[in-house]
Amino acid sequence: MKKVAEIFLILALVCAGCTVVCGAVSAEEMRTFVDDVGREVVLPAEIDAVSPSGPLAQIVLYSLDPDLFVSVSSSFDSVETKYIDPRLLTLPVTGQFYGSKASTMNPESIMELNKQLHIDVVLDIGEAKETMKPDLDDIQSKTNVAFAFVTQNKLSDIPGSYLKLGELLDRKEQGGRLSAYATALLAEFDAGMKTIGGAKKSLIYVTSIDGNSVSMVGNGSYHAEVLDYVGNNIAAPVTSSSGTGDGYTMEDILQLNPDYIIVSYTGDHAYYNKIMSDPMWRSLTAVQNGNVYEAPYGPYNWMGAPPSVHRLLSLMWLGNLMYPEVFDYSINDRVKEFYSLFFHYDLTDAELSDLMIYAKPNASSTPVPTKAPAPLFGVLAGLAAAAVFAGRRC
Asked: What residues contact residue 349 under an 8 Å CB cut-off, 6+ apart?
């Protein structure tokens, strides 16, 4: 009997030891991440299942690692699907937590999807707001799914956001690579714009035309950051928060008479064609000088909509277009680099020509149907610059 008791005691000690060891291993497999609104988020050491909370998070997460997706915030349109990993087209749609479609993401749907998806973290990206911390704490407590926020609002946020995302999602190498690219590009443009100084060219960005009514993105808008930076955006100060901007009349446009007109993409190039063929538009200096250009589109509109990392494309494009003597590089090479790095897509020369059909000087004024554009890589320079940037954050 004594022997039996001793055996039971030994077994109990072994089980207790296993419990302690297993508990220690389990604890070691978790880590704490402090997000950009100061929330301590407990996460697995290795991340392999991420749900984006909206379109900005979806775009940025894709650039970091498409394999991380277990759901998407919204389905892809016919232009976007050309550039997107086909696997993502089959994933469930989780919806959007913030913005005009915020009601599409709710605790009940997250909990239900998590039963099948086993989500490591729901990623939110954008501008930090006062209500964000309690909002995220609330939905995290209701769903028992981790939510983490990273700031990426202005162009200057991009380098640091990728370093933070690399840490959050355990993708430090790619995060550092994307951060280095953005750091080098922004430094290049800071230097170039100082050279240009007060000699900025005037421009407007036309987002829609309906008879005598014209919509443009106003000066000072979140959506006009690139326009305001590289040119003299002579549209009036913004009054609407919409990405399509504010309403004007044709008479307003004639009075502005800009050096350059950038026009939003449509599948049939309708707005571009209208400007190039309408007698009233043709009286403008920009049209007479051939300085009307359609913003490329694919997988997203380079000018924004939504405004995310692809605005770096519009920065390179407009800089080289308006000031080729300062930003003296092959725009073809730059676009291919960017698409490869951020969209994981290698553009052919034919695809690039389709993509930029009315985005280069000497474009024909008679539009022809074009296939959807494609994405590619960006100039990788200045890894040291990214290290300096990261040092400044510490």
From this structure: 332
Whether the link from the prior residue into 159 is cis, omega within 30° of 0, is: no
The predicted-structure confidence for 332-373, as pLDDT tens digits, reads as follows 999 999 999 999 999 999 999 999 999 999 754 444 333 333
- The CATH 3.40.50.1980 domain(s) of the chain lie at 32-153, 197-355
pLDDT tens digits, residue range 168-186?
Answer: 999 999 999 999 999 999 9
How far are the Cα atoms of 48, 105, 194, 300 from residue 69, in angstroms, in the given order?
Answer: 8, 16, 41, 19
Q: Is 168 helix (H, G, I), strand (E, B) or coil?
A: helix
Look at residue 32 and tell me whether its pLDDT is greater than 70.
yes
Answer whether 281's CB lies under 8 Å from 274's CB: yes
Taking the C-alpha atoms of residue 272 and residue 277, their distance in angstroms, rounded to an integer, is 9
Sort 19 into a burial class: Cβ within 10 Å, 0-12 / 13-18 / 19+: exposed
User: 197-355 belongs to which homologous superfamily?
Assistant: Nitrogenase molybdenum iron protein domain (3.40.50.1980)
Give the integer Cα–Cα distance in Å for 170 and 50: 12
Q: What pLDDT shows up at residue 211?
A: 92
Q: Which CATH class name applies to 32-153?
A: alpha beta
For 85, how many CA atoms within 13 A lie in the half-sphere containing its CB?
Answer: 19
pLDDT at 13: 42
- Using CA atoms, how far residue 79 sits from 134, 145, 378, in Å, is 37, 32, 21
pTM: 0.84
Across 56-146, the runs of DSSP E, i.e. the strands, are 121-126
